[in-house]
Amino acid sequence: MSADQDIKNAIKKLEKLGKKLQDEVVEIAKEAAHLIKKRTRLGYGVEHHGAKKNRLDKLSDGYKATRKRHKPKGPSTASKSNLTYTGKMLDDLVAEPNGQGKAKIRLRTDLSRDKAKWVSGKRPFLNLSKSEMKQLQQLLNKKLTKLTDK
């Protein structure tokens, strides 16, 4: 095989690896969205990116009474602060490709984005904790090792 053909083959392999890597970036973002949803439903938020998780602020007595009358959906109670009055806002959290090998996590609807903006003042939840970031880094390392070993 000629040097030109070797280079062409190497470029094809790198392009294929690049495409697979882009797919893996989206998978990592999906896992990040899943971690945020899970933690929040358990009643924890993260003040800023890389901080420790902490309990979400308690609900006011008036809001607890409202939730009690309207029975929250899913595995929650009227007094639990976990941003799941209906569950729709957290269900709207998705990860998707953002071009050039990147991915973004976003809320699908304007209503969910507005709710998130409003609740994030007292109950920040869209950040990743240090331990969640570590989990995602380990997952990325595992995926990279798997891709490069082929």
In short:
The chain has five helices and four strands, in the order αββααββαα.
Write the layout of secondary structure elements.
Layout: H1 3-41, E1 44-46, E2 53-55, H2 61-70, H3 88-91, E3 93-99, E4 102-107, H4 110-120, H5 130-148
Antiparallel strand pairs: 1-2, 3-4
Please provide a written account of the structure.
- With 150 residues, the chain is of the alpha+beta class.
- It has one domain (3-148).
- The chain has helices at residues 3-41, 61-70, 88-91, 110-120, 130-148, and strands at residues 44-46, 53-55, 93-99, 102-107.
- Helix 1 packs antiparallel against helix 5.
- 19% of the residues are buried.
Count of folded domains: 1
According to DSSP, the number of beta strands is: 4
Assembly type of the shown chains?
Answer: single chain
Alpha-beta content class: alpha+beta
- Residue share in helix: 55-70%
* Strand coverage percent: 5-15%
Number of helices: 5
Low-confidence spans: pLDDT under 50, at least 5 residues?
A: none
